[in-house]
Amino acid sequence: MAEPAHGPASFWTQANALLRKNLTFQKRNIKTNIRLISFPFVLCLLLVLIQSLVNHELNKASNKCGCECIDTNGDGQCEKVCGIQYSTIDQVGTCPMQNPPEWPPLLQIPAPQYRAVINDSCRRTGSCPATILFTGNNQSLGEILVQNMVPNSSTLISSTPNSSDVLVSLAQNVLGSASWPNLYNYLEPAFASDQPVYEVQQQCTSNSSFSVALQESSITLQQDVSCAQGLHLWKNSSSAVNDELYKGYRKGNPERQINEIVAGYDFLNTNSNNFNVSIWYNSTYKNDTGNAPISLLRVGRSVNLASNSYIQFLLGPATTMLFEFVKEMPKPETELRLDLSSLLGTLFFTWVIIQLFPVVLTSLVYEKEQKLRIMMKMHGLGDGPYWLISYAYFLSISSIYMLCFVIFGSVIGLKFFTLNDYSIQFVFYFIYINLQISLAFLVAAFFSNVKTATVVGYICVFATGLLGGFLFQFFVQDTSFPRGWIIVMELYPGFSLYRGLYEFAQYSFTGNFMGTHGMRWGDLSDSGNGMKEVLIIMVVEWLVVLFVAYYIDQVTSSVSGKSPMFLFDRFRKKHPSSFRRPSLRRQGSKVFVQMEKPDVSQEREKVEQLLLEPSTDYAIVCDNLKKVYPGRDGNPEKFAVRGLSLALPPGECFGMLGPNGAGKTSFISMMIGLTKPTSGTAYVQGLDIRTHMDGIYTSMGVCPQHDLLWETLTGREHLLFYGRLKNLKGSALTQAVEESLKSVNLFYGGVADKQAGKYSGGMKRRLSVAISLIGDPKVVYMDEPSTGLDPASRNNLWNVVKHAKQDCAIILTTHSMEEAEVLCDRLGIFVDGSLQCIGNPKELKARYGGSYVFTMTTPSTYEEEVENMVQRLSPGAKRIYQISGTQKFELPKHEVKIADVFQAVENAKSRFTVHAWGLADTTLEDVFIKVARSAQAFNVLS
């Protein structure tokens, strides 16, 4: 079909062939690629849309500093004036604060309906006390200190003098509120809402409610103050205090009685020379916005009460340590800003990036499931070029995908990308996609079904994002969680990705909120930044996973899998091969003499003689080849091939005939490297199939029983790829491809450039034959090559095989006796794992035929007369078939003449009715049936 290629294809020639094939395959799957890349585009656009909606809501007047139109000059014209005095609690955080207001410090006091009680009667009247628990080493001292905390009576004033006098007066009393504090204190909710303010006293009287005026900026806030009785209870230990607090906690069991305590004090070893106190406070009342610090604005008052009471214990009641006010830092006017890409990006972008994993995984498993990689390897593609090009191919696709993702996200203005240093992003994404590709190669070794791999791959995608967002992230944020366990969790590549994206999101969110930049290289040294450790983990895992993936691929490969210790083979001393061919064969516990036909024994002797010669020109030499499958589930071991010896010179087509299950496929599988022989070996072009299959593949062609083709590649592209693997180049390659297409009738009518997935079964079969013969291989294996072909295509295919066998040795299996007679120079009938006979078709028919087959159909009443007639013609005749008047006999050729048969039939017609009759020579099919039956009968008796 073309001039022979000069030697096997080099590493780079194979790599070039695979790269061209992959690029063509990628071009054909352009729609799939568009769908793949559109996912991050759509997601980014969705984030932009949501961001615009959020910005629209944030820009509403209700979220900006409050303003009013005021007549400042008395001329009837109003002027827009903005500031804290015109703002609600939600608005005040955005106002400019050159001189922030001073607010009285408050205790966090439970609302009356939640306060700790002995019975429910006080809840009906709203008079439940504000309870304080205390304990310590000295109860009497504790009693004194707690009594000093709560005044006997109120010193609040109802007038409105200057603000400083009011604050001093308020500081001398114990005020509290049930309102929740804010993260900021520009506007205290207790004085800017309908929530009441409580004054804690030792005993409330009937006139213990007040109204206090608080001057802030240009407005006066009038606040009603109600009395709350302060009740202090002693407990014997801190654990008892803790137990009471736990039992009354509001967010506990909803069926539990809510008995909230104001605070708990453990004075420990406090005495006149030492002040040591632990304070319990209820952190339920906080404004916690994720990573923002917890507001402790009302904890300071609890600390001040304990400190002030101790001062009074030492120096007397005239000495006080007042806590006058709390005040925020001044600040300019700000705007509410919320970056959705940073807030939600960690989860969403994890899904975007990790979705490449099932894409790579399914591609690798597809080649494995369809046996396409096996097909490529059997036509000369080495592991080195395959790994290099496949890895580079997936890396290129992943890099383009990520580049488009980052560029598009930056163009539409997502802060996640624009604020963080692009060089850090490049390094992080590049390392991760390499790790992801390596992991896909490793995981692909454990799957053989695309659907299963796809399901598992996408489960990993969504599970990684969800576990990262709702489990791993909380561990990262919890400063009390051991950092070592965080690193252990990051050993899972998905969590490494999530942690890196989390760090990008945090820096971009903070940068956007503060109006600064995101992550820079210098930030990697920050103690709270986990990016540095993530990069180190991913680099190490990338190299380790890639090595393990390659090792497992070499060991578990279905094509000539290597020994688990193959890495050390080069250091081992190689021993010369020795050939032992015993005349006895052991099967189970019995030993018996091998019963072989003379022709089979003669073939074995020829093989033994060839192996003793220093060199031979035989293309294939099989030496006592055996394959035994171990027994399973209580069944005995299966002998698939029993000591097969065979020698094929170049230019010979050897046909293997045999019933299903005879062992033909097992023999072919050993010869093409799919399975290893149990014992014995074979030599192809002088190379041992046990150790040099890679060298054998460079001069081998295979037409498998089932067509192994890429659905989206055309017939021409298939042949171009396999031709390059056979080292065909330039015009020689083009000519070889065209001749191959013409020879199998796939050249004309545009068929050559039609995708193989649109071929009929017969067209696929012809393409498979053309693939096996391109590049003039020295050895070709064809497994039922004409299956599914019409008579005209079959005859055309036979001519192709006849022409091809002039320069190569062909082993062909078939169930068509006509095909065997036309194509095969020699035939071997294979039954129960062993050759029963061997020779050319004429020899076999002469050896196992030697008789005519006489058939006659009469009424069943004349069967005996027909049998008597045949016995007169040939005393050695043997009836081989009888049913409903139809009988078939074997007549030895040396006992009968054809003319006598015709005469006997004519005479019989005059005596009884003859419906039909016939006389035929022995066919190859008869020989096959006879040999198979006799061999199976012998095996049953054995």
TrEMBL record:
Belongs to the ABC transporter superfamily. ABCA family. CPR flippase (TC 3.A.1.211) subfamily. It comes from the Eukaryota. GO terms for cellular component: membrane. PANTHER family: ABC TRANSPORTER A FAMILY MEMBER 3-RELATED, ATP-BINDING CASSETTE TRANSPORTER SUBFAMILY A ABCA. InterPro entries: AAA+_ATPase, ABC2_TM, ABC_transporter-like_ATP-bd, ABC_transporter-like_CS, ABCA, P-loop_NTPase. This is ABC transporter domain-containing protein. Pfam families: ABC2_membrane_3, ABC_tran, ABCA12_C. Coiled coil: none annotated. GO terms for molecular function: ATP binding. It is found in: Membrane. It is a multi-pass membrane protein. The keyword ATP-binding applies. The chain crosses the membrane at residues 36-54, 338-366, 386-414, 426-447, 453-476, 534-552. Keywords: ATP-binding, Membrane, Nucleotide-binding, Transmembrane, Transmembrane helix. Residues 620-857 form the ABC transporter domain. It comes from Eucalyptus globulus.
